[in-house]
Amino acid sequence: MLVDTCVISYIYKGDTRANGYKDLLTGDTLYISFMTVAELYRWPYEKGWGEKKKQQLIMFLKNFVVLPYDDALAWQWAELRGKTCRAQPLPLADSWIAATALRHNMPLVTNNRKDFERIPGLTLLG
Question: Is the pLDDT of residue 102 over 90?
Answer without folding.
Answer: yes
